Amino acid sequence: MADNRNNSSFGGLIIQFITTAIIVAIAAFLTPGFKIDGLWALILAAIVITLLDFVIRKVTGVDASPFGKGIVGFIVSAVILYLTKYIVTGFEISILGAIIGALVIGIVNAIVPGKAF
Questions:
Q1: Does the residue 54 lie in any domain?
Q2: Distance CA 44, CA 84 (A)
C-alpha cells in the first residue's frame, strides 16, 4: 500500500504522530514483552518514534515501515521500538517484543489508514 502523502510537512507529522500512537497502543496490547504504562508514556513514545522515523528517513532515505522497504524497513522498525525504551520512561519492550511488535505494527499499518513509522 503506497502512501503518497508528504510527511515532511508539519501537518503530515501530526497525522503520522496520531496514527503512530494508535498503532503502538494496539501493538502493545497484542504483543508479549511490550508494555506501555499509561497515556503519557504512549504520547511520549509516539513523539519519539515519529521523530526517530523522520530523522532516519531524512538521513538514510529508508522508510521505517515494517513492510515499506522489506527486511530493512522491518529491522529499522524493530530498532526504533527497542531504542524508544531507553528514551521514554514507562515504555518497556524486550528484543523479541520489538521484533513481534514490528510485525504487528506492519500488519496494523496496512489496515489503518494513514502512515505510522
A1: yes
A2: 9
84 in a domain, yes or no? yes
- Provide the domain limits for residue 68: 10-111
* 116 domain residue, yes or no: no
Its pTM stands at: 0.78
pLDDT in tens, 23-47: 899 889 988 999 999 999 999 999 9
**20 Cβ contact list (under 8 Å, min separation 6):** 46, 49, 50, 53, 116, 117
**Could you tell me if residue 2 is inside a domain?**
no
In the chain, the N- to C-terminal Cα span, in Å, equals 14
Number of domains in the chain: 1
What pLDDT does 11 receive? 82
Which residues, in sequence order, are CB contacts of 10 under 8 Å at separation 6+?
A: none
